[in-house]
Amino acid sequence: MVKQQTTDESGEAAPRRPAAKYRQLKVPQTVTVGALAELMGVSTIELIKQLMRGGIMANVTQGIDFDTAAALAPIFGFRAVPVEPSAVKAVNVSSDEEDPSLLQPRPPVVAILGHVDHGKTTILDAIRTTRVAEREVGGITQHIGAYQTTHNGKKITFLDTPGHEAFTAMRARGAQVTDIAVLVVAADDGIMPQTVEAIAHIKAANVPIIVAINKMDLPDADPDKVKRQLSEQDMLIEEWGGEVIAVPVSGKTGDGLGDLMENMLIVAEVAELRANPDRTATGVVVEAKLDKTRGPAATVLVKSGTLAVGDHIVAGTTRGKVKALINDLGKRVKQAEPSMPVEVLGLNQLPQAGDAFLVVENERTGRLLVEQRQREEGAPRTGVTLEEMVTQIRMGEVKDLPVVIKADVQGSVEAIRDSLVQLNTEKSQVSIIHSASGAVTEGDVFLASASHAIILGFNTRLEVGARQAAEQARVEIRLYNVIYNLLEDVQSTLEGLIEPTAVEVVEGHATVRAVFSQGNRGKVAGLYVNDGRVVRNGMARLSRNGQVIHEGPIASLRHFKENVREMGAQTECGMALEGFNDFEEEDVIEVYRLERSK
Ligand code: GDP
Known about the structure:
By secondary structure, the protein is an alpha+beta fold.
């Protein structure tokens, strides 16, 4: 969604569809609000809003029963039916609570980021070739998107696609794969634009960071300069009293790489990375390619459980029975434990990097789950608009307004940053995920999507691909030519967040049974109250064939010529609306009141 200095968009009428289009939705006997939103492919916020309209205050993790879910489903175009037990199991598998006593340490998964030519690939290759022990047993290194190595008897998994684009693209698909990020900075070159971007991406992901100061073998290596520059990026290294671990290395000579790995293990230890290996596997696809002879081949990382040959799996919207598992040395293995990269053969199609996978009970469950996910596909889930942000903060889900700033020149970037900080209040603040000069890139969109941020552009344009990515990920990009307008929008958002706002409380529903003319005083609808009550001081939302066609105040409410304040369910009454006369029989009127929320 790209908006050019947008004005406020109100009138967020609930999505209503004609009855004929209701699709069947399998719903468990109890389901969390979050899971139901996911099943229907709608935003959790939208669902919570609808629940509030029905007088139910619920949060994302709260369970609701089938009847409540069934009452909500039509609003989103679904007809709820109770789910069969096997499918429930598959759907719930990823949210199973783990018993802490079953958890065992697992190797860290490490991603390497940094500016181009600073030595990311060289370091990855150098570490890979230290795998002497494995090579002795005859394995040939296979590039499957990730590999595992052993240091001091402990395993470390490396993602083989360096750079923040891959890192954040996966995150934007909802996958949290990386446990530790290694930021490579060449000691002769120092911090460069992509280093700054990488730092923003790592910070947004909230992943521990280790800096590798590379190319220490070069005569003009200046590690102190790198450390100084890091401190300017709010990354104070340990020696200087900060928390950032910086390790001098040379990818070329291999110096310092042992120390680098040692530090990865320390960070992993601190992070207490654990998984339960004794359960059905779940994990993430890190790479997928179509092999002419073997068909779709997907490299996956197991996050929890153990994946075995013969398992039925679903990855994104693909599925299959695992025919073979091949490790990073090209050897067939029978199973894969947590953090172990392995290539899976047997999927019916090519999944995407970042897709979650899970093992399901049988082929049928797999098919059901894929069908369910296909229904959800295309349903935007990651992006968020400025208006939605207001609702989210109101719900207490977030108190920050995360933004990515792109502007024509560095001077504007700084001016905007400084002014935005001034807008912060105690209750809500702008959180700048990333700011830089230049056009809005696809990478910015992924970053914003993964961080639920909006993009604010000043005197800048969109790079090819960014627009499409934004539309797909439903990331809002607002472009401005006047800084004042940008600041004003942000300020009013922040103020909207902290000021009490009106929430709707639905009172009841009525159907138009007849329409009476009152001459020049307009028309009155004869109503039958279906549920709840209708109230004189309420608002009316009139829909016809599932489409809302009018919304506004109620002008009068009568019962046998008497003015009344309210009428209960299963009664008849007459209602006139302010500024609306075009009633038709069978129109449905929802009556609600606006109340101040806390
Ligand atoms: P990437 O773009 O970050 O993956 O960088 P590469 O690994 O492709 O390295 C870019 C260039 O720097 C290559 O010519 C490497 O040989 C060279 N290079 C990488 N690491 C070192 C190092 O530690 N010392 C020296 N002298 N050159 C290095």
